[in-house]
Design goal:
rod-shaped; alpha+beta; 2 helices; five-stranded antiparallel beta sheet; 193 residues; Immunoglobulin-like; four-stranded antiparallel beta sheet; 35% helix
Amino acid sequence: MRAKLLARALIVGGLLALAVTSIALAHTSLKVGPYMVEVGWVDEPPIVGEKNAVFISITNDDTGKPVEGVGTLNVTVSTGGKDRQLELRPLSEDQPGQYAADFIPTRRGTYTVKLSGQIEQTDVMTSTDIEEVIPASSLQFPEPVLDAQTISQSVSQAQSAVSTANTTALIALVVGVIGVLLGGLALLRGRKS
């Protein structure tokens, strides 16, 4: 009986450990000189079209103390071949060493965060991918609302179909006119004979 109870406790403990680990894995830790830099999203999961921010936490790896005043650190986010430099701000007054760079992700997929400049006197030039941005429809209930990317793809497909239909109609019109002309010509020849 005790063995079964112990086994159940170990299983529950293991599952809890996995759950906590998977939550923590949403952020990436980077070693930059004497600092540990954690990068991720402020709000997870990140959703297309909803305000969010890149989360950055900086601690001195030797002392474990948070690092404040990183005014010379630049944050650039990129996806789909496009880059945007973001303004870094303290996350809150009561969380030293934690920063946010606000923006609204407008495309599904993976975003790359590039850090450059300096943390105190240490040069920084590194990048990391952060958690994939998901469409809002994956969390909406009861009816999903299409995001702009899906609507744009649908409009492009419709425009392509209309273009194909217009081309087909034009060809049919030309063939019809040629047919009427040939029929009229045959009718005139038949009367002359």
